[in-house]
């Protein structure tokens, strides 16, 4: 098979490419240039897609004896990931840029170009599996190493995309084994730290970064009963579940800390309250996609048991879900959580599982709690 290996410059993608070569595939490596700032440098484990990462990717391909290219996707990245991130925060939601990057860049733009150039598959270093059902259709499943499993961030993949995905690390029992293999193969990235945080905000100061791109206006901080508590400098800089940085000056009556329960950019208000009110018991999702052939209940509207995960490294929670069509014709994924889930924000992605299989994903449009009624806050 003719395989395009997406080379991030990290150890996982390097070993994945090596395994594809060893399996006898015709492999070509490509690094995605997602920023037009040539001086961008990596800071320890912060950031990715930097100059150092590009050089590391080239060295890995040179060691493997495969061609190496750099493709400039910076315009697509700026529009589909960075601008989407800004727009979502401006609307008072909390987006996941890694999900958008996988959806729009790594498994849309990249795969589209790869197929146009005659490649059969795109190979990445993600920890996830593609299995086949009894009819031969692809399904996305968790990796063997659940501690490193990345099926959550791949939940946006469609059946058509899964047909052309290759994840050579799927059955690898641990990251330590990947590093040991990289060292044995003479790959210089064997001990390179994993990247984390948002790649286009390498210093980790999301609030400061947003302040340069969103017009922040002072407004009220009120409690869950509508009582004014203080002022903020911009509602969009807050996230649901946040405790620090509220600067209220006086404690709650019970002396316990307050948490952000809701953000209302239209009213420019931040609603806060006790930790207990962070638990939600129903999620409603939009922008739904299915990873493979949807289960029958998606078409019938019947309820089905599942597990729901809302963070890349979060624990899945037992749920009962069903599809619902609104009066204006929009499909919603309604997820009820018998045991509740803490601190969920609109804009986050919920990925739905049955066992190890990823059924699909949706962007959370609303997160509701039976413990309090947000409409009572004027």
Automatic annotation (TrEMBL):
The keyword Acetylation does not apply. The gene is mnmA. ATP binds at residues 6-13, 32, 125. One of its GO terms (cellular component) is cytoplasm. This is tRNA-specific 2-thiouridylase MnmA. The record marks 126, 348 as: Interaction with tRNA. Its EC number is 2.8.1.13. GO terms for molecular function: ATP binding; tRNA binding; tRNA-uridine 2-sulfurtransferase activity. It comes from the Bacteria. Residues 281-364 form the tRNA-specific 2-thiouridylase MnmA-like C-terminal domain. Belongs to the MnmA/TRMU family. The active site is at 101 (nucleophile), 199 (cysteine persulfide intermediate). It is found in: Cytoplasm. Residues 148-150 are annotated as: Interaction with tRNA. InterPro entries: MnmA-like, MnmA-like_C, MnmA-like_central, MnmA-like_central_sf, Rossmann-like_a/b/a_fold. Catalyzes the 2-thiolation of uridine at the wobble position (U34) of tRNA, leading to the formation of s(2)U34. It comes from Glutamicibacter ectropisis. Residues 209-273 form the tRNA-specific 2-thiouridylase MnmA-like central domain. Pfam families: tRNA_Me_trans, tRNA_Me_trans_C, tRNA_Me_trans_M. It is an enzyme of class 2 (transferase). Keywords: ATP-binding, Cytoplasm, Disulfide bond, Nucleotide-binding, RNA-binding, Transferase, tRNA processing, tRNA-binding. It catalyses: S-sulfanyl-L-cysteinyl-[protein] + uridine(34) in tRNA + AH2 + ATP = 2-thiouridine(34) in tRNA + L-cysteinyl-[protein] + A + AMP + diphosphate + H(+). CDD domains: MnmA_TRMU-like. GO terms for biological process: tRNA wobble position uridine thiolation.
